[in-house]
Design brief:
2 helices, 70 residues, mainly alpha, elongated
Length: 70
Amino acid sequence: MPNFANKMKKIKISRHFLLLLVVSLGLLYLTRSFWMSLGIMMLLLLIDALLAQYERKQRHKENERQNDES
């Protein structure tokens, strides 16, 4: 079963990478400026990382609450 989990993680990473690629190409097409697209992508990646960190903290808090209730 751990092999299945690893495959799903790779698929999730691949889907995330594909989405970032599409967004970056779209930005490059819309702005027609590499540097502006790069700046926007950096901001989007920062926001993505902050949201992922927030989500991990919320899950950790929820898991702690469930363990305390048990």
